[in-house]
Amino acid sequence: MTNLFFFVFVSLSAKFYFRPSLFRISYFNSFDFVASFSSIEHSGLGRYNDPLDPIGDIREMQKISCMLKPGGLFFLGIPVGQDDVGHNCHRTYGRIRLPMMFAGEYI
């Protein structure tokens, strides 16, 4: 199991340093499946000290598509309803934004 978050992780040990942005390069086409639940809808809104990015959620979907093996499965849990951005808390996906989330080459 591998877990990612927005932050750079620095261990007290000088032997371990991890930058999430480099993870997708190291693990290109590596995973048979990816599961994301209640996470991507927060990407790019700055609530968890992540960089502000109006398409941060779409970028995360593209990163995931690069990490999946061809034919890999993606299990996604996001709020669905009328398109909305709830302050800097989360997005709700509807007729406009939901298709944008799945516009990638592999997803």
TrEMBL record:
<dbReference type="InterPro" id="IPR004951">
    <property type="entry name" value="DUF268_CAE_spp"/>
</dbReference>
<protein>
    <submittedName>
        <fullName>DUF268 domain-containing protein</fullName>
    </submittedName>
</protein>
<dbReference type="Pfam" id="PF03269">
    <property type="entry name" value="DUF268"/>
</dbReference>
<dbReference type="InterPro" id="IPR029063">
    <property type="entry name" value="SAM-dependent_MTases_sf"/>
</dbReference>
